[in-house]
Amino acid sequence: MTTNTITTANMITTANTHSHAHPAGRIDFAKAAPKVFRSLIGFDAAAREGLDPSLVELIQIRASYLNHCAYCLHMHTNDARKAGESEDRLHMVAVWREARHFFSARECAALALTEAVTLVADGGVSDDVYAEAAAQFDEQELAHVLSLILTINTWNRIALSTGKVAGTDERK
């Protein structure tokens, strides 16, 4: 497992051990479905392979904004800072289209694809968005970017449905 994968796994399991991490009546997903949880950790680890850690965090931050997942947004902005990401870029992720000069062409393509996949029910993934991502990433990289988008959307949905509370990430 990579460091990022371990931290993703730890964020869920560590937070599950603290009473303020779960509202009353919500399940501890890792304990209730350990095989599913371990499989998701493996999927997450495989998705990250070969991707720039900064790109990984930008994708996770953008999806978490779109999904209104404060728990994951808090965790991934902190992870990005620890990895050396600038405050300017972190502040601009939410409005990246209006601040493209903060991001590379690859990052913009990944952010656009993240939006399209995260909001797929709103109109699918357009040929233009897909073509731009395919122009910026080779096939293997693109498959990993797509996989990462799928994993963060899954983590967001787990955190939201189990009532994770922003700021309760105790991974240190």
Can you tell me about this structure?
Helices cover 66% and strands 0% of the residues. It contains 9 helices and no strands. The radius of gyration is 16 Å and the shape is globular. Helix 1 (3-16) runs antiparallel to helix 3 (34-48) and helix 7 crosses helix 9 (139-161). The protein is mainly alpha-helical and 172 residues long.
Can you give me a brief rundown of this structure?
This protein has 172 residues and is an all-alpha fold.
Using the CA coordinates, give the radius of gyration. 16 Å
> What's the end-to-end separation, in Å?
17 Å
* Unreliable stretches: 1-20
Class based on secondary structure composition and strand pairing:
mainly alpha
Globally, the shape reads globular
Order of helices and strands: HHHHHHHHH
Strand content: under 5%
Helix content, binned percent: 55-70%
Q: Mean pLDDT, nearest integer?
A: 87
Count of discrete alpha- or pi-helical segments spanning 4 or more residues: 9
Largest sheet: none
Number of strands: 0
Please outline the helices and strands.
Elements (H helix, E strand, L loop, with lengths): L2 H14 L12 H4 L1 H15 L4 H14 L3 H13 L4 H6 L12 H14 L8 H10 L2 H23 L11
What would the keywords be for this entry?
66% helix, 172 residues, globular, mainly alpha, 9 helices
